[in-house]
Design brief:
- By secondary structure, this protein is of the alpha+beta class.
- Strands 1, 2, 3, 4, 5, 6, 7, 8, 9, 10, 11, 12 and 13 form a 13-stranded mixed beta sheet that branches.
- A hairpin with a 5-residue loop joins strand 4 and strand 5.
- The longest helix has 23 residues.
- It starts with a helix and ends with a strand.
Length: about 220
Amino acid sequence: MVQLKRHGRIYFFWILILFVFSGCSKCVQNKVADFAFSPDELLINPYVEGDTLLFTSENQDSIVYICTKRELRRSKYYEISYEDAKLYHDDCMGDYYETDGDLTILEGSDSSAGIAISLSFLNSFLHPTDAKEISLQIHANFENGIGIFNYYFEEDTILKSNPTQLLYFYPVKQIGPTIFTDVYELVNDTIPKFGIQKAYYSITDGVIGFESKDGLLFYINTP
């Protein structure tokens, strides 16, 4: 009888240990933030589906872009990556936040041409801030390559994403034959330098011009 009681205490001890450790490995996930664009913030990208843009170069080449997609969607980002969660955290990805993302695609008449504009919030687990980023990619054609421009933005302002980044603002600037107001000159800061080196962007008009690595300017034709 004493031996049975002793075995019973041993079984109870191990059941208790298993219970405690199973409780410790429970995955706890809390929503820590929610980031959403206001309607006014989304206006920094003026395009809607169906918009058509015609750009002409100084040597009279032309490219047509048509907006085929603009999509606002919600995403969830976790504190721990999927891979690390599988390897080190019993599949638990930890806390998370939800955020807006806005993507616009303009397809070009040349098969290698296109424009993509993405609005997003920075990963708040890597950057403890609610900074918003506008990412612009311009494909002109095979000869002139691609330009990539990443900046921060506020409701009606484009900002540097780091102190050494190049960014110029012109209250009034002529691009091609047209005079525009409130123009930002964005500089391609990818390394190595290649493709389109500059883009001219207006909050109200979007992309109004871009310049190739050889200094060839493409400007928008306005009605």
